[in-house]
Amino acid sequence: MAASPRCTSPAPRDAWAELLRENADALAFQTPEWTDCLCATGRYRDASRLYETRDGHRLVVPMVRRAGLAWPLRLEASLPYGWGFGGIVGSGGLGASHVSAVLGDLLRYGAMRVSLRPNPLVAQAWADGAPARIRRVPRNAHILDLEGGFDHVWQRRFSTGARRAARKAERSELTVTCDTSGALVPVFYSLYLRSVDRWARNRREPLWLARRRAALREPEEKFRRVADHLGEACQIWVAWLGYRPAAAVVVLRHGRSASYWRGAMDTEIAARSQPNYLLHSRAIEEACRAGCRYYHMGETGASESLAQFKSRFGARPYDYAEYRVERLPWVR
Fold first, then answer.
1. How much of the chain is in helix, strand and coil states, percent to nearest 5?
2. What is the predicted pLDDT for the residue at 55?
3. Reported confidence tier of residue 180, pLDDT bands at 50, 70, 90
4. Do the strands 58-61 and 49-52 form a parallel or antiparallel pair, or are they unpaired?
5. In which element (H, E) is residue 114 found?
6. Percent of the chain's residues with pLDDT above 70
7. SS in 3 state form for 39-89?
């Protein structure tokens, strides 16, 4: 591996697309279409990087730059918090030497801060390849292995409690719809706003403040853009009790990976009918039918209740790290 690989930024889309075709386990978050979603918000610019090494390897880092900041204050991320996993997409698998070469280049890059949150499945390559001076922020995520198909996953990986809850939801009056056109974005967002109110009450936070922050960070337009840019790769699943939405999940698909990105619910209905178990069960079954190998359930952090919920579907915890290249000690 060359110590200083040649870099092109932004990454040419044709080369990026070719690398994605060669990497079956790449995530929807690592596609150029996802970068377009971030840039469409007006808050980010495309800062993706294509590396070409002397021994023939090509690597893409899906990355964005915060808009409106001059060079000395540049903040870049792969990817920003709330936008999924970035890291490196490489041809022929990812090794520690690839990680070392990319991070070595970013150390010389000169931005104020560059943060990278890789796919947890390649955490070991990052741990082995990251230079000692790169700051590590411990993270934790859950991933469900779909090998064997849905019947196997249902019988061998779902817990007894998860199967019982999904069956209970099926026997209730709940109905489930799945849409890839974006028509269900307003339904999902109405449930999301209910969740915002619930979180604010739990934290004893003023409702107006929580709603204002949600409108700034997670406006409905954000989810519309995702649905528009990803098309059929963006699935919005909704469980209904009559005409009332009970819960919704947003699942993004690419290659052999399905990623649970967002979820929201009406706790008044959910407490009686367990719609989340039914929604994830249906989404996992559809992912298996589509030939996916993994169902990524996202960042878990230190939440024991969230970890327990994900583990009931058979998802395993993956410890990984976020890597930060910093000119100033932001983490400390």
1. 45, 25, 30
2. 75
3. very high
4. antiparallel
5. strand 113-116
6. 97
7. HHCCCEEECCEEEECCCCCEEEECCEEECCCCHHHCEEEECCCCCCCECCE
DSSP SS3 for 205: coil
Is domain 6-140+320-326 in CATH 3.40.630.30, yes or no? yes
pTM for the model stands at: 0.93
Mean pLDDT for 82-97 is 89
302, two tokens: 């230190």
For 225, the token pair is: 């853009």
Q: What angle do CA 114, 115, 117 make, to 5 degrees?
A: 150
Strand arrangement, sheet containing 44-46: 44-46, 64-66, 75-78, 113-116, 316-326, 135-145, 294-299, 257-265, 244-254, 234-241, 174-179
β-pair type (244-254, 257-265)? antiparallel
Q: Do the Cβ atoms of 303 and 311 come closer than 8 Å?
A: no
Q: Identity (one letter) of the amino acid at 228? A: D
- What's the mean pLDDT when you consider all of the chain? 92
DSSP 303: -
- So what CATH class is 147-292? alpha beta
pLDDT of residue 328: 67
Q: What is the DSSP letter of 148?
A: T
Residue 282 and residue 134: Cα distance in Å, rounded? 41
Contacts (Cβ under 8 Å, ≥6 apart) of 313: 144, 157, 158, 159, 162, 280, 281, 284, 295, 297
The residue count of the chain comes to 332
- Tell how far CA 52 is from the center of its chain: 26
Pairing mode, if any, of strands 257-265 and 294-299? parallel
Q: Is the CB of residue 261 less than 8 Å from the CB of residue 252?
A: yes
Nearest-angstrom CA–CA distance, 211 and 323 = 31
Place of tokens 């993994």: 294
Amino acid at 31: T
- Residue 25 CB neighbours (<10 A): 18
Across 18-25, average pLDDT: 91
Q: Give the residue extent of every domain in the chain.
A: 6-140+320-326, 147-292
